[in-house]
Write a structure and sequence with these properties.
The complex is a heterodimer of chains A (about 240) and B (about 240).
Chain A lengths: L16 H13 L8 E11 L2 E16 L2 E7 L8 E8 L1 H6 L8 E3 L1 H5 L10 H11 L3 E6 L15 E4 L9 H11 L3 H7 L14 H6 L1 E9 L12
Antiparallel strand pairs in A: 1-2, 1-7, 2-3, 3-4, 4-6, 5-6, 6-7
Chain B lengths: L15 H13 L3 H4 L3 E9 L2 E16 L2 E7 L8 E8 L1 H5 L3 H4 L3 E2 L1 H5 L10 H11 L3 E6 L15 E4 L11 H11 L3 H7 L15 H5 L1 E9 L11
Antiparallel strand pairs in B: 1-2, 1-7, 2-3, 3-4, 4-6, 5-6, 6-7
The chains are: A alpha+beta (about 240), B alpha+beta (about 240).
Chain lengths: ~240, ~240
């Protein structure tokens, strides 16, 4: 992991001036309804649900739908040319418990990420972010990545991957941790002390969450299109 | 609709405290990648695994360069819009460089644009014409992670691959969906179609894209349990 999280450059010509001018126009004329609800930036790490050794720095840009539900876009870096690599949904423990059992393995706990100091809000004073993180520690998240930047993919290739979050000491790659700590001038170890009082889900970590304490992998299946294309469709 | 709109997602309404925290974070954090979104596109998509299911989509588009765009996709353009997925858009030039297995996952945009389905709400048609000319030659890869159209209150299951509308029967968008959209923006898809005849048809659309059209094969992503490759035991 040398020189920051992003390796591969996206291929393509620089944006033509005409296109840029046009998009300045659309950006001015158009409304950005749901996007305007995005109000916070969280930094953390994800790893692949079938391979903990592959870890990715993840910058979450989140909006609340309500007190118990956030939806986040995930970028590989918090900059203009950040790659949109995935998304995450964050829900309260109460909502998590309403999910059918076969859905629960997709979701991961946030208790360790918060308590260890590793999940943080860049640029927000500790005392302020801790008020929110206290809540996050009790939630569950479902993260899907579409772009495997850790493999050096310069374009989003292959099928979506289910991601998991850190759950105990010894999992996070020291190089990744140090890189982030240096860039943001923070110490996970020190911040951990400020969060000792925080607690995870009231009912403890659910045994079906975190890939059922096992692992998950996605596979692509080719099927016949339903119904057969030979059937004429009639709209009334 | 299986569930009332207001119940998706379920959850307690925002507390004043959380609203204040969000406002504070928004002021302190730059949210740089989000600010780069420069277009709102409204169009339609079909589930690859069930082509009878069509959805209206709202794409918030960021251009990274002349050949690559990334989109956050919502199910509505109001502030309660739910984040339902991500689409990537690449030029024909980049598409031809992908391997054939990868190409199967992508769809063409020519018909969607020529037929008037793809619109930039509130932007005069004249302004976006040059951009539409470019986009007609692009390919997209769209993963849907929240099937709100079937009433899922929370995101369920693995991601679904989405296809673009096409001029053949299985690819035709439900007229009632189009009417609903047109009424909302006070536009006419049919009129747009006529005004877009002059947009050049691409000389070549790679038949690996829109794979179902030639091969009658669709795609499903499954998630299966697997033993995770770990760094430390146990997990979690």
């Amino acid at each position: 992991m040398e020189g920051g999280p992003t390796q591969a450059e996206i291929p393509g010509e620089p944006t033509h001036t005409g296109t840029a001018v046009l998009e300045t126009a659309t950006a001015t004329i158009q409304g950005f309804g749901p996007v305007n609800k995005i109000h916070q930036h969280l930094c953390a790490f994800h790893f692949y649900a079938d391979d903990m050794t592959r870890q990715v720095e993840a910058h979450h840009f989140c909006g609340h739908q309500n007190e118990e539900f956030r939806q986040c876009l995930i970028y590989d870096k918090p900059e203009k040319d950040g790659k949109l690599i995935g998304l995450e949904y964050i829900i309260s423990e109460r909502l998590f418990l309403t999910l059918p059992d076969n859905e629960k393995p997709f979701w991961h706990s946030h208790e360790y990420e918060v308590k260890s100091g590793i999940l943080f809000m860049p640029g927000v004073p500790g005392i302020v972010q801790r008020q929110d993180l206290e809540k996050v520690a009790k939630t569950y998240g479902k993260t899907i990545h579409f772009w495997q930047v850790d493999k050096g993919d310069s374009l989003p290739l292959g099928i979506p991957q289910v991601m998991m979050a850190l759950t105990r000491d010894g999992q996070l790659r020291p190089g990744l941790a140090q890189d982030v700590e240096n860039r943001y001038g923070i110490s996970f170890e020190k911040e951990r002390e400020n969060r000792v009082h925080m607690t995870g889900p009231d009912h403890g970590l659910h045994p079906l969450a975190n890939a059922k304490c096992q692992g998950l992998r996605t596979v692509l299946r080719e099927v016949d299109c339903q119904p057969a294309d030979s059937m004429p469709r009639v709209f009334t | 609709m299986a569930a009332s709109e207001a119940e998706i997602p379920p959850g307690k309404s925002m507390t004043v405290e959380q609203t204040m925290l969000d406002k504070g974070a928004q002021m302190l954090q730059t949210l740089e990648p989000i600010k780069q979104m420069s277009q709102h596109v409204c169009t339609f998509a079909l589930y690859s695994n069930d082509m009878h299911r069509h959805i209206e989509t709202h794409h918030y588009v960021t251009r990274i360069n002349q050949d690559f765009l990334q989109c956050a996709v919502y199910d509505s353009d109001d502030s309660h819009g739910r984040l339902i997925g991500v689409e990537y858009i690449i030029s024909d030039r980049l598409f031809e460089g992908l391997n054939p297995e990868e190409q199967k996952l992508w769809h063409s945009h020519a018909y969607e644009i020529k037929s008037g389905l793809w619109v930039n709400p509130r932007v005069p048609e004249m302004v976006v014409k040059p951009e539409l000319e470019n986009l007609a030659r692009t390919y997209g890869k769209f993963w849907c992670t929240w099937q709100t159209d079937r009433g899922d209150k929370l995101p369920m299951g693995p991601p679904a691959l989405m296809m673009s509308p096409q001029a053949v029967n299985l690819g035709m968008v439900r007229p009632d969906l189009i009417k609903k959209r047109d009424d909302k923006y006070n536009i006419s898809t049919d009129t747009l179609k006529v005004s877009r005849v002059e947009i050049g048809e691409p000389e070549w659309i790679n038949p690996q894209a829109d794979y179902w059209k030639q091969h009658q094969k669709c795609f499903v992503v499954d998630a299966e349990p697997v033993e995770m490759k770990k760094i430390v035991d146990p997990f979690p």
